[in-house]
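seq as requested:
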Amino acid sequence: MAIKIKTTDEIAKMRVAGRLAAQVLEMIEPYVQPGVTTEELNKICHDYIVNVQQAIPAPLNYRGFPKSICTSVNEVVCHGIPSSSQKLKNSDIINVDVTVIKDGYHGDTSKMFFVGKPANNDKDKRALKLMRITQECMYRGIQQAKPGNSLNDIAKEIATLASANKYTIVQEYCGHGIGAEFHEDPQVLHYVTEENNIQLQPGMIFTIEPMINAGNRHIKLKKDNWTVVTKDGQLSAQWEHTILITQNGNEVLTKREEEQSLT
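struct tokens:
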């Protein structure tokens, strides 16, 4: 496994790309409303990345992916394709996954949104809890991202919290190294394995992006060969940040304004 340790110049470019990716999620939030189509969200993000940020939406045409962002709604685990026929409705949950290329380097992040105003019922409460616990899984994983620790230390925190809430972790998809390439080594698994016992070093940059299911962990791929859904049809949630390992901890390259307390 050839893990790339980023140079000072590369880190500077990754900071810019990460900030731009975060700004896309901040920009799109007011548009995530009942009645909007996921294709409309895609177009707004595409136009913002290309025309305002003067950057490139990395997913577009990546291995044949047809859109500029991923929009994963309800039981969709990841890689949902924006569509003009998919209108968001009250109580949907949606993950918007954004990757921006600027000056040859990638910033990759995603956020969950609850559509409309939550009702005071068990269904909406369960959805909100899944979103909240999944975000906390990511944050706890980030806290373990520091020199001297391993990828397993990150995975253990995520797996422990998910299990305590009777949730399951998708094992077929994971975080990844990132830089000039969209996907680099290492693979960042969100559950503990022997292969995941890789020591963290300053200059490593990778994503932490747990995919947590309300039901069992099993998934299936739809006929479009991109959209991944839970096999049992239950909800799934995901949050993602791009992380730089520093000399004494980490830097979240994709943190949003609402997350300024993140170190």
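Residues 8-249 form a domain with the Creatine Amidinohydrolase fold (CATH 3.90.230.10).
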